[in-house]
Amino acid sequence: MTMPNLALWRWRSAIAGLGMMATTASAELKMNLPEPVSPLTAEIFDLHMLTTTVATIIMVVVIVLVGVTIFRFRKSKGYEADQDFNDSRFGTWGWILVPVVVLGIDLSIAGPGTKTLNNVETFEEADLTLKVIGSQWKWTYEYLDQDIRFVSTLNNEDLSSEGYLREVDNPVVLPTHQRIRFLHTASDVLHNWWVPAVAPKKDSIPGYINETWTIIEKEGTYYGQCAELCGTRHAYMPIVVKAVSEQEFAQWVAEQKQQKAAQMAEASADKQWSMAELMARGESIYNQSCAACHQAAGTGLPGVFPALKGSTVATGPVAEHLNIVINGKPGTAMAAWGGQLNDLEIAALITYERNAWDNNTGDRVQPADVKAAR
Questions:
Q1: Residue 166 phi/psi, 5° resolution?
Q2: What average pLDDT does this structure show over 66-86?
Q3: How crowded is residue 16: how many other Cβ atoms within 10 Å of its Cβ?
Q4: β-strands 128-135, 179-186: how paired?
Q5: How confident is the model at residue 269 (pLDDT cuts 50, 70, 90)?
Q6: Last residue of some domain: 120, 143, 168?
Q7: Beta strands in 95-215, from DSSP E residues, in sequence order
Q8: For 322-340, what is the mean pLDDT?
């Protein structure tokens, strides 16, 4: 093989390799919105496809015209700029027809766009109301009619896993073929609960309630993400919605109520919990609810979130520790956990924080201590 042929062979091999990589990447890359499973998201998807199609046609036409113009009227062929273009018939009609065409395109999109926006803002009687509260960096869900409340956080940060940054510990369970009202708010900064296949996105604003709705027509698991930049771990606020039949949803509600009753009975019992029991339960609660800010090792994020390891809160008076966990700290990202955790959970959490990471205070907080501090 001669040197020129060898070089050509190497170039062909490189190009072929890049082509294979591009094919593999494109097979994995989802370039469009997910398949809609509700009438409202289907309208949004159709509007998205309409605007994308129109924009693509305009782009192709403009590129072709610019390319032809550059090629045919290039300086090397002796062409010079027309100094009287605006006074010519073509120039005059061009300035008239181009705005008319653009206005026609805008009106062709404005019609279905207005209809879709009106439907987004249509509020009718719902079969189920779900309050969604965004916090750094978790979602709290309240089923207002079923008296169910839970926190949902990321539970998959394994880079090699298929569900990397997408799976949560507590997915939202919703029934199909029922009108569902979403009430959106936030406890700290702006968030945005968005599951493209299920419901339109709308900002979650502290101290304000926004509303959206959906009717899910197909059972399945659907994924979403916080769509508003909310802080350093914005990418770690996934959403998982499990759409099930109405019978399965009723069964799930019954199970959640039984579980809540058992937890409340356990938390209100006069049992004296051992250090080992409190530490095990507290570690689980800390990793689920607190580690995103204060880190798994209790080191915090310098300049953003304080460390608990060796801190004056975790090693100081128990009463102050209880107060900040139950009531939060105004003006900071420290939320009030008194309404989200029961007495036993708060007792276990504080016991863990006061004895983990070499804090070793030896303090053992009981549910009765939490009850007295509320």
A1: -125, -25
A2: 82
A3: 10
A4: parallel
A5: low
A6: 120
A7: 128-135, 138-143, 148-152, 172-175, 179-186, 191-194, 203-204, 210-215
A8: 83
Q: What is the pTM assigned to this prediction? A: 0.73
Structure tokens of 260?
Answer: 């809540």
The per-residue pLDDT for 338 is 83
The CATH number linked to 342 is 1.10.760.10
- The token pair at 172 is 């939202």
Same-domain status, 184 and 285: no
pLDDT in tens, 111-128: 888 999 899 988 889 999
Question: Are 252 and 132 in a shared domain?
Answer: yes
Which residue among 194, 228, 256 closes a domain? 256
Asked if 170 contacts 150 with a C-beta cutoff of 8 angstroms, the reply is: yes
Question: What percent of the chain has pLDDT above 70?
Answer: 91
**H or E element: which one contains 35?**
none
What domain range is 183 assigned to? 128-256
Question: Do 116 and 170 share a domain, yes or no?
Answer: no
Q: Using an 8 Å Cβ cutoff, are 273 and 344 in contact? A: yes
Distances from the Cα of 361 to the Cα of 236, 259, 306, 317, 321, angstroms? 32, 33, 19, 10, 13
CA distances in angstroms from 265 to 133, 157, 337, listed in the order given:
26, 34, 19
State both tokens at 185: 């708010």
